[in-house]
């Protein structure tokens, strides 16, 4: 389990690749949102994570920045979406369209690799959390380094509208450093985007 | 009142410098994260809190937007790492390197006036570490400003203090001959404009900064303009013409108001 120890909060994250049940996870989140009563609460608790399509994440810092901005927004009562976990998806998307953010960056039927993130106020026992994450996702848990194999640079380039700029870069390494920096910066400044 | 998240981050950060508008810190978002630079626009007690919050928010927003626009267009600027407009905190990529002011003759603060005639030996010594000559450096300045002006961003405060050279150890390039990168910093006074006048004034401000910080800098600045002209292309004659006008009258166009 990877952790991001911010000053105020801690975020725990696992990377799954491949994922065998993306469609089911998505359906489960939708159903949990609609369910009522104590059963509904339980079900919501079982999927109380941010499920992020890992193919759209460029680096650990990219993910960390999105989590951090979501934490800032929540601490100031400035969430643009319903929960801190959906706010991460909103922060990742370069536009202000919430539906689009969830469709693109959240879990979808075609998701092959997923980050599962949970934000808490203070560090706690992670064994329970890890079990809950593994119960929600049918897939192989891999180290964060594996992200390099799943990142879909062409798609990220398209979402950030960087095709012309990338063409001017000398080689693939330079192009990726560039896309990574733009993606991180866009996430960081999302709250003051025009 | 409880301490906000960003305030808490600042408390655990290392103070670097303070100016009239902001304080600057070196921080880490998490213990494993790369360092970032925090620019904290602190509360001005002489301003009404409401006005203060609005001004701070719009300035942070303006600075972040200018940086992202430059970054997307391939201008060398630090990436953005966090924004908390409510608390007045802007976090940007930490650049491992040095300000140009300290790398050019006359700019070092502890540099006595007695070694002014020793100019050539001293600057080549410091710059050798970065693998560039003074002439190459001047050209880099011109190119970077031209790239920024090409996307209609006006820096507003071009000085050699607001430019940095990346240390070769922390810089990788596909071209082995390129050992460093000139980075433009501090977009706190920047704005967007397509006007030739604004671009000419931007250059004029830098020319004055050169003249007042670095002795005998006329030939140096000429090389900055040469680099700028080359990158600007067709728009250069108009800007050059306007720069000549600005030199005669100063940076304020109108003598009234």
From TrEMBL, chain A:
Keywords: Kinase, Nucleus, Transferase, tRNA processing. One of its GO terms (biological process) is tRNA threonylcarbamoyladenosine modification. Gene3D superfamilies: CGI121/TPRKB. GO terms for molecular function: kinase activity. It is found in: Nucleus. InterPro entries: CGI121/TPRKB (IPR013926), CGI121/TPRKB_sf (IPR036504). The keyword Aminoacyl-tRNA synthetase does not apply. The keyword Nucleus applies. GO terms for cellular component: cytosol; EKC/KEOPS complex; nucleus. Belongs to the CGI121/TPRKB family. Component of the EKC/KEOPS complex that is required for the formation of a threonylcarbamoyl group on adenosine at position 37 (t(6)A37) in tRNAs that read codons beginning with adenine. The complex is probably involved in the transfer of the threonylcarbamoyl moiety of threonylcarbamoyl-AMP (TC-AMP) to the N6 group of A37. CGI121 acts as an allosteric effector that regulates the t(6)A activity of the complex. The EKC/KEOPS complex also promotes both telomere uncapping and telomere elongation. The complex is required for efficient recruitment of transcriptional coactivators. This is EKC/KEOPS complex subunit CGI121.
From TrEMBL, chain B:
Belongs to the protein kinase superfamily. BUD32 family. Transmembrane segments: none annotated. Its EC number is 2.7.11.1. One of its GO terms (molecular function) is protein serine/threonine kinase activity. It catalyses: L-threonyl-[protein] + ATP = O-phospho-L-threonyl-[protein] + ADP + H(+); L-seryl-[protein] + ATP = O-phospho-L-seryl-[protein] + ADP + H(+). One of its GO terms (biological process) is tRNA threonylcarbamoyladenosine metabolic process. Pfam families: Kdo. This is non-specific serine/threonine protein kinase. The keyword Hydrolase does not apply. Keywords: ATP-binding, Cytoplasm, Kinase, Nucleotide-binding, Serine/threonine-protein kinase, Transferase, tRNA processing. Residues 10-257 form the Protein kinase domain. Gene3D superfamilies: Phosphorylase Kinase, domain 1 (3.30.200.20), Transferase(Phosphotransferase) domain 1 (1.10.510.10). GO terms for cellular component: cytosol; EKC/KEOPS complex; nucleus. It comes from the Eukaryota.
């Amino acid at each position: 389990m990877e952790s991001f120890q911010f000053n105020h909060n801690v975020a725990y994250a696992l990377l799954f690749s491949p994922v065998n049940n993306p469609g089911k996870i998505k359906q489960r989140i939708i159903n949990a949102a609609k369910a009522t009563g104590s059963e509904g609460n339980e079900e919501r608790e079982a999927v109380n994570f941010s499920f992020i399509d890992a193919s759209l994440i460029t680096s650990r810092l990219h993910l960390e920045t999105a989590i951090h901005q979501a934490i800032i927004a929540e601490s100031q009562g400035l969430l643009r979406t319903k929960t801190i976990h959906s706010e991460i998806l909103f922060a990742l998307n370069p536009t202000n369209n919430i539906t689009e953010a969830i469709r693109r960056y959240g879990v979808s039927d075609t998701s092959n690799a997923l980050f599962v993130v949970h934000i808490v106020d203070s560090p706690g026992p992670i064994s329970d959390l890890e079990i809950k994450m593994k119960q929600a996702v049918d897939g192989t848990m891999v180290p964060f380094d594996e992200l390099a194999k799943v990142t879909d640079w062409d798609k990220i380039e398209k979402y950030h509208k960087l095709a012309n700029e990338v063409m001017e870069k000398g080689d693939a390494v330079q192009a990726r450093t560039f896309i990574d920096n733009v993606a991180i910066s866009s996430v960081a400044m999302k709250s003051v985007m025009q | 009142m409880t301490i906000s998240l960003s305030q808490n981050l600042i408390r655990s950060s290392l103070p670097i410098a303070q100016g009239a508008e902001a304080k600057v810190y070196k921080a880490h978002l998490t213990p494993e994260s790369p360092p970032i630079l925090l620019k904290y626009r602190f509360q001005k007690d002489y301003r009404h809190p409401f006005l203060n919050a609005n001004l701070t928010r719009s300035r942070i927003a303006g600075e972040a937007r200018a940086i992202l626009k430059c970054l997307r267009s391939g201008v060398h600027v630090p990436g953005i790492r966090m924004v908390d407009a409510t608390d007045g905190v802007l976090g940007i990529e930490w650049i491992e390197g040095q300000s140009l002011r300290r790398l050019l003759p006359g700019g070092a603060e502890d540099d006595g006036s007695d070694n002014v005639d020793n100019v050539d030996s001293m600057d080549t010594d410091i710059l050798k570490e970065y693998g560039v000559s003074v002439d190459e450096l001047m050209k880099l300045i011109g190119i970077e400003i031209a790239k920024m002006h090409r996307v209609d961003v006006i820096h507003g405060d071009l000085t050699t203090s607001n430019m940095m050279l990346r240390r070769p150890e922390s810089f990788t390039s596909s071209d082995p001959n390129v050992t460093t990168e000139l980075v433009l910093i501090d977009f706190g006074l920047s704005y967007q404009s397509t006007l030739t006048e604004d671009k000419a004034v931007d250059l004029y401000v830098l020319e004055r900064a050169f003249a007042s910080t670095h002795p005998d800098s006329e030939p140096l600045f000429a090389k900055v303009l040469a680099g700028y002209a080359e990158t600007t292309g067709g728009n250069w004659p108009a800007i050059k013409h306007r720069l000549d006008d600005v030199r005669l009258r100063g940076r304020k166009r109108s003598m009234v108001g």
